[in-house]
Specification:
The structure holds two protein chains of two kinds. Chain A is α/β, with parallel strands linked by helices. Chain A contains six helices and nine strands; from the N terminus they run βββαββββαααβαβα. The longest helix of chain A is centred in the C-terminal third of the chain and has 17 residues. Chain B is mainly α. Helices cover 79% and strands 0% of the residues of chain B. Chain B is built from 14 helices and no strands. In chain B, α3 packs across α11, α9 packs antiparallel against α10 and α11 packs antiparallel against α14. The radius of gyration of chain B is 22 Å and the shape is globular. Chain B starts with a helix and ends with a helix. The chains are: A alpha/beta, B mainly alpha. Chains A and B meet through β7 of A and α9 and α10 of B.
């Protein structure tokens, strides 16, 4: 269960937002530049808020500048907007990057490959992928890490309508199967996330307090 | 038909410089006597400084890597007050004449602190360890510069992705940063090795010219030249040049095919 109240200031921009009690999935809306990415980065531990707290499952990630758990120990995987695939690894190695067992490939790997149409790309390196393929591999890698908190920043960018539907359906199934909470920041294809709408409180970073 | 004057001028200057460098080194071959060549390169007075130079430059390069990789990472990733000044200080051995660096090291290790180290058995003045230290001191900034540029080129988004996937800072460095900067790191170490192998000024100041003890190949060449043994000096110089060239080409091939 995620809850937070944070303030983060950059020159000419202040993000103040909060969430009292999260649901299993959250749709994070807001105009471009409203602070969606900043909020996700604060939750992932890549940015440090100026004030406030971030709490997840009775554990504080951040509290009033005194406590700041590093990203690696938050179990909060962030799929960023930029291409962050490891260029020296193949698609398969990227997807299985955080898998503990090196001998056994998890069933989820094959499911995700099929659903995201990545089967023919596993031996390729990121440099030879298109923008949409990069997004799908990044999503697959995030899912295979089985995080406690999955943070998706614009997951539909570069995907056609059919693939957007499949991604939405895959995320819905993933939520049913694993103990994961998801925050999806997107300004497109929100209509495909009706399953989120049923379960979450909708927030935007400009909103002072929601949930 | 129009003439591209810019291109023509650049090609002319490029060719002129290439000819100057090539003819200078090739001129050395003209002084080699076939009759004495084999006996010189098989003599102890050539092999001893050659082997010592290979040992000291390789040791100096390993030490350079030990210090240059973490230092380059600090300079590339962590902004701190006075970073530019600190970086400037680390590049001083490149900017000042090697003789000055050697003099500075000699004065430092002649100080009370240096005397205390000597009393503990750690001696650098007029010792083989001094030659290694002088080469390390001069060569490290060359590695530092190249390695820092290669760390700068590693996209921090990729490092952040590894961190949110559960990698500790150590694992991010060993699994992502270092493999992505691998070619730059190897190039930097290669450059440092070449610089250490050819180091003369600082080495002669700190390690002296003690034959059969702390004599590197460049020092041996200088000593033979200054005592009028031109043929021996030239043969040594040519062999050193060929050895450096072979290792350089082999390493470059490794870097490009890897």
């Amino acid at each position: 269960m995620l809850s937070f109240t944070i303030t983060k200031t950059y020159p000419g921009f202040t993000l103040t937002t909060g969430l009292k009690k999260s649901q299993k999935a959250i749709l994070l809306c807001g105009r471009s530049g409203s602070g969606k990415t900043t909020l996700l980065r604060c939750i992932a531990g890549l940015e440090k808020p100026d004030y406030g707290y971030i709490r997840f499952n009775d554990r504080y990630f951040y509290r009033e500048g005194k406590l700041n758990i590093p990203p690696a120990r938050r179990r909060a995987t962030l799929m960023s907007q930029e291409n962050s695939l490891f260029p020296h690894l193949t698609v398969r190695q990227n997807i299985l990057y955080s898998t503990k067992s090196k001998n056994q490939t998890p069933d989820l790997y094959y499911t995700v490959l099929k659903e995201l149409e990545l089967c023919s790309l596993t031996t390729k390196f990121p440099a030879s992928l298109s923008g949409g393929e990069v997004r799908r591999v990044m999503l697959a890698r995030s899912l295979l890490s089985k995080p406690a908190l999955l943070l998706l920043d614009e997951p539909f960018t570069g995907l056609d309508l059919d693939l957007c539907r499949r991604v939405s359906s895959l995320l819905d199934d993933y939520l049913q199967r694993y103990h994961t909470e998801i925050i999806i920041a997107t300004h497109i294809r929100q209509d495909l996330l009706s399953w989120v709408d049923n379960k979450l409180c909708l927030i935007t970073p400009e909103t002072a307090l929601a949930g | 038909m129009s003439v591209n004057w810019l291109k023509a001028t650049f090609i002319f200057l490029f060719a002129l410089f290439l000819i100057l460098v090539l003819s200078a080194y090739l001129s050395l071959f003209g002084l080699i006597q076939k009759s004495s060549f084999i006996s010189i390169i098989l003599s102890a007075e050539f092999l001893r400084p050659l082997l010592f130079s290979l040992f000291s430059s390789t040791t100096a390069t390993l030490l350079a890597g030990l210090f240059a990789i973490p230092s380059a990472y600090i300079l590339s990733r962590y902004p701190f007050p006075g970073r530019e000044l600190a970086e400037g200080i680390l590049y001083l051995p490149v900017l000042v004449p090697p003789l000055v660096s050697g003099l500075a090291l000699m004065v430092l290790f002649s100080s009370p602190a240096g005397n205390w180290l000597a009393a503990q058995g750690i001696r650098f003045i007029f010792t083989p360890a001094g030659a290694v230290l002088a080469q390390f001191f001069i060569a490290t900034p060359y590695a530092l510069r190249t390695i820092k540029v290669s760390f700068n080129k590693v996209d921090q988004n990729i490092e952040e992705a590894a961190a949110t996937l559960g990698d500790s800072p150590v694992r991010v460095f060993t699994r992502v940063t270092l493999p992505l900067a691998r070619k730059g790191v190897l190039s930097g170490l290669l450059l440092a090795w070449a610089r250490a192998l050819g180091e003369f000024g600082a080495t002669i100041m700190l390690a002296g010219t003690l034959a059969r003890y702390s004599e590197t190949l460049p020092v041996a060449i200088y000593l033979r030249f200054s005592t009028g043994e031109l043929e021996t000096a030239v043969t040594m110089a040519v062999m050193m040049m060929l050895a450096a060239l072979v290792i350089l080409i082999a390493t470059r091939r490794f870097l490009t095919t890897d």
